[in-house]
Amino acid sequence: MPEKDPCPEVVGPLKEYCIEDDGSGPPDGGGSPDVGGGGLTDGASDHVKDLAESLIKTIIDLLVPKKAWAPETSDHGLYAPFLWLGQHIAVAIFVCVVVVCALTAWQGAPRLRQMGASTGWTLVAVAGMASIPGAVMLLNRATSNAFRAAFNSSESTLFTTIRTDLKTGADSGNPVALLIIISALVVALAFAALVFMTRQPAILAFVCMAPLVLASLARGGDMTAVRRWAMRLLGLIFAPFALLLVSPFVTLAKGSLVMDAVLLVAADALMLRMIFHGVPYIGPRVAGAVRNMVERNIPHPAARAVVRAGAPAFYEQENTPRTPRTVDTPGRAVTRDRGVLLAAYGVKPPARPGRLTTASYVAKARREEGDRQARAAQVSAVRRQARAAAGNPSATRSAPPAPATPPTRPGPTQPRP
């Protein structure tokens, strides 16, 4: 029985070696096994594409996870205690309003209107407390689907363009370009993880706070605290859509992996800015800590420029013209929102005047000292010119002195986290 020829089962360049009769070496036009259609190079390229696909999928899952950390139902073990507390606070406030209206019934119609408003708003508050988890779940799911459609659906979206350029881009076979795009994806993954670790706990905290905030409606429908709470929560949920700012530039970068990497770097700056503005209370501190870490450990000016674009320099508390922006410390931001909530309950907390933190005060003092030195230098230069003009007018007319340049102003220091 003749032996079966094994050569048809061999794939790749080695098949040509197998079918050679003399076995003297590679066939005509042959070369190393990794040259030619397929082989080791294409295998490595496939591994790079799989790695890029895995990184892109992880980035999207971190930015807009399909399931948030927040409870999905009102009977969840984490949400139920807050729901019980909020409902009892609302009922207690309603009872107090009814008692007060009964004791002052001689005032007539105003008290009746107050009791009617309290009754209606108490029912609204109790019903809203039970519906908040489901509403947040549906909103988070809609946000996730919309984000994936905006960044991963057609050929003109960012991540789909990166996948296409890995296959057919002008530099898709360049190992340096592949290294650049993979490095950019890894850095974007780190920023996406930071967004996830700050955004999800914040959404959980604000959902659990919902019964306590909605209970303030029972007093008569004061929406101040509810609006502040809703603004914070919606800002957290819709924060990833800040990355849409890079979408108009996707078509310009199409066809080049290096340009795709530049867009990813811009997305990194937007993610850091997303934390700065979108995460209440601790967002500026977290973004500032990332900026300080990068500036201490990475000397490259491009990396420093990216983190400075994402986390701008700021002073805390005071806001005066022609100075960097100011933000509240986490403790003061919580205190101000707590004051709004207490005001909705009818409690007027004492006003607490703010002051600069130590780092911001040092930066402000340095800046003011630089301004004083600049003004002193200008005054000295004008006086010298006046004395020279009084002593030798012809020399002054023939050769006017050059204006003095003020010294550079020291910039604000980034406060320690």
Your description of this structure?
This protein has 417 residues and is mainly alpha-helical. The protein is 64% helix and 1% strand. It is built from 14 helices and 2 strands. Helix 3 packs antiparallel against helix 4, helix 9 packs across helix 11 and helix 10 runs antiparallel to helix 11. It is flat, with a radius of gyration of 33 Å. The chain starts with 13 loop residues before the first helix and ends in a 19-residue tail after the last helix.
Please give a handful of descriptors for the protein shown.
417 residues; mainly alpha; 64% helix
**What ranges have pLDDT less than 50 throughout 5 or more consecutive residues?**
21-44
Average pLDDT, all residues: 78
- For the termini, the CA-CA separation is 81 Å
Overall geometry comes to flat
Structural class: mainly alpha
Structure summary, number of beta strands? 2
Q: Determine the fraction of residues in helical runs and give it as a percent range.
A: 55-70%
For the largest beta-sheet, the strand count, sense and barrel status come to:
2 strands, parallel
Rg for CA atoms:
33 Å
Strand content: under 5%
What's a quick, concise take on this entry?
The chain has 14 helices and 2 strands; from the N terminus they run H-H-H-H-H-H-H-H-H-H-H-E-E-H-H-H.
